[in-house]
Amino acid sequence: MHLPLLKGFGILLITSVFATLLAIVFALIARRRIPIMAFNLAATGINFGLSLAQVNWALVLQDVPRIGELALVMFLSAITNVGCIVFNILAMRLGHAALSYAIGQSAMALSFLYAIACWGEPMTPARILGLVLIVTMLVLAAPEKRTDTDSQSSGSGIKWFATVLAAFLCTGLTQIFYMTPSHWTGWQDSAHLRLPLFLGGMLLCFGPLAFGKRERLQRNMIGLIVGTALLGFGILALMLISVDMLTPLKLSGLAYPVVTGLSVLFFALYSRFILREIFNAKKWMGIALGGGGIILMCF
């Protein structure tokens, strides 16, 4: 029993490193002012192509249950995920990158509340405590009277806070829409259509935005775009492997919170020691509360 457990958590650790690298890419886009829409259009296009390879086309040609409803909720999830990506990058551009990332990732509190209200999931003491920690983090991050003039280091301006709250809301809605089909009675994604429908919806959003803004990418961005796409696809693949390993041990619910919580911690360390962002006790406390609240949500 211990070997599958160690393997499962080993893969979760690797996945959290991948998630941290993806956050680092977002911070790079924010700092270098790389065109957000065009960059994500290209990366999403690569992932969409990869996702088509795992579709069971034989089943697609048959009658796929609730295909219209699936396409609708995946498109809604895609729209909100585009908002999640854009607002997260803008928040990192406007203020403290590590705190922005921690708040955005804590949005699973919204999907947790929705699951309790609409899907009948239990309200456990650990989840209540996790919710309290996340709310406390938001309170600590709320705008206050600033004594320093460096908005990048303070990360507490009204514009930044409004942007990071928009990222928080979009992230939570993305999770709710994406998980909705799993709660349909008797429904299974046997044809593996959910991911390509989701990514296809993102392409339909990023495409007009990129062309409307007339954004262009330099050729030296190709490597970063391909790397970003492979990171995103790798995270999805590794998550599925870890869930398969942990399911027999009845620990599959730990996968997403552990990966997210660790990536918040790892990105905070990157932000402090590589980006040289200014941290004070309040920021460390906020990030720790967010990461701890995320992990508690799985119990």
**Which percent band covers the strand fraction?**
under 5%
Main pleated sheet:
none
The outline comes out as: globular
* Counted beta strands: 0
Any overview of this molecule?
This protein has 299 residues and is an all-alpha fold. It has one domain (2-296). Helices cover 74% and strands 0% of the residues. The longest helix is centred in the first third of the chain and has 31 residues, at 2-32. The radius of gyration is 19 Å and the shape is globular. The relative contact order is 0.21.
Features of the shown structure:
299 residues
Task: Describe the structure concisely for a colleague.
This protein is an all-alpha fold.
